[in-house]
Amino acid sequence: MRYEMMLPHQIRAAIEKNLPVILPMGVLEYHGEHMAVGMDTLAVVKMLDLLEKEAEIVILPTFYYGAASFAVEPPEGNGSVHVDSGALHPFAKELFNGLLRVGFRNIHGFIHHQTENFTVGMPTDLAFKFAARQAIFAFLEKDRGEGWWGNDKMADYYAQQAGGSDPFNWIRFHPLMTKDTIGQYPFDHAGEGETSLMMALCPEAVDMTHLHDRQQWYVKSAAYASSETGNRARDLILAHMRNVLGLPERP
Description:
Elements: H1 8-17, E1 21-25, H2 39-52, E2 58-59, H3 85-102, E3 107-111, H4 123-144, H5 157-163, E4 171-175, H6 179-184, H7 192-201, H8 227-245
Parallel strand pairs: 1-2, 1-3, 3-4
């Protein structure tokens, strides 16, 4: 279900069922001459298109305006749009506050941009993670009052934490590709891995006739890309998404 298309009774039903509410996150960044600038975000969007066909989930409107950085190429004529993480943080905090007030308690963000070391984090995901923690703390204090954690009603907090049901799991973030996925599939920037993934998920975002318009080192392996290779990543990612969202495995 697309959140912007839901009627109030559907939203209430989603809250009652505690359905996963998913924010596709990403950036607009130069990905060589052969691939669309939305690649990092499109990968998340297209994977959710597939997941939506098999599972009951709520998909929020896509956020494209992350901190792309200009580490790959300068933006002039190349298309990268960088929004500083300092500006992302207050926006994300208000977004999560709004979603919590609606009643959602099973919120997930998926991102592909700069996620090869997701535990350490990069500007976009760190801004959203920090904002989520602040939003949860503020919401709990307003809803339950000061001293909410020390209240006797929270005596089972550590049991909740062990079971994954504590309030700080209300908002979680995930890389599109885990370490396990990266161990089985080429992780790169606009090379064989990402180009293959786009060939499989969004072929209209790839035009290989422009691959050699410029000779950047990071795109050279894209010459070996194929939709068949991309399909391997698709299946690995789907399995990962089902796992973290608590959805049943497909046969």
